[in-house]
UniProtKB/TrEMBL annotation:
Record bears the keyword Transmembrane: yes
Residues in Solcar repeats: 38-125, 141-229, 244-345
Subcellular localization(s) per the UniProt record: Mitochondrion inner membrane
Organism: Durio zibethinus (Durian)
Gene Ontology biological-process entries: transmembrane transport
Keyword Ribonucleoprotein: no
Record family assignment: Belongs to the mitochondrial carrier (TC 2.A.29) family.
Full protein name: Mitochondrial adenine nucleotide transporter ADNT1-like isoform X1
Keyword field: Membrane, Mitochondrion, Mitochondrion inner membrane, Repeat, Transmembrane, Transmembrane helix, Transport
Coiled-coil features, chain-numbered ranges: none
Pfam families: Mito_carr (PF00153)
Amino acid sequence: MASEDVKSSESAVSTIVNLAEEAKLAREGVKAPSYAILSICKSFVAGGVAGGVSRTAVAPLERLKILLQVQNPHSIKYNGTIQGLKYIWRTEGFRGLFKGNGTNCARIVPNSAVKFFSYEQASKGILYLYQRQTGNVDAQLTPLLRLGAGACAGIIAMSATYPMDMVRGRLTVQTENSPYQYRGMFHALSTVLRQEGPRALYKGWLPSVIGVIPYVGLNFAVYESLKDWLIKSKPFGLVEDSELSVTTRLACGAAAGTVGQTVAYPLDVIRRRMQMVGWKDAASVVTGDGRNKAPLEYAGMFDAFRKTVRHEGFGALYKGLVPNSVKVVPSIAIAFVTYEGVKDILGVEIRISD
């Protein structure tokens, strides 16, 4: 009798467990798609916030960098980082330091969101293929594979938002004395479309694609590889409980930004100069106030390189490098730390290479 009661109890418990498991599976089956969508949305939000915060923090240096890149060599107005910032403050006031930042944020928020999300998805896909190829389910992404994932993310994000980057460059360059004023991003987009055609919105796209491969690729590869190395080797007591401090992550991001921007900088200069081509009422900083107007017509990327070096020397390919270096180190560092911080707050798993 007792044994029958025991069997009956075991049967009841087994039935309850089975029903609970079935209910759990049913719930997971229903919620899986919505959870995936929520995770994607959180990833986009984290990337967008990271981009907006990091770019606004260094907006004055970003504007000065572009002005140095495209100013007419025969009519120098901006000569160095400190002098250039002082000149902008004196001639345009505080608002002048942030000119074009609204358009930049409108571009960088979706750009950063797409870039970070694309990097995560590309990393997962590449890791899956790598594990299948090696037959090792515990294999991790190598620095080279991270470089490839970062390059894919950079190309996708840059191509998706390039028209906004093109008009942002022109909005950033124009001053109060420019012969024709773009009133904002949408006005600039419509004006360029009407006067120069849709292809004009992608001027400088090729050097951007070539430049984004080492720039974004190295950013992600160096950042992730440094983090992994620090966590595994734990040098100088920088790691506690397999976690890096915010300061250490900022340093990793700064190192990543320095390497990426130094390699890709000449292509950024050429991209900006190609974006100015065809601007009928170009800003005075580009035309040199009409004096000794520099050649603004380029047949393509290689022609732009050739004319820039021939007329201004090899150093012209690194115009604006100093303010860009001062800008890009905190910008990239802030972007990575903000991204990971927001994802932590939203409760999203950020370790994509495990």
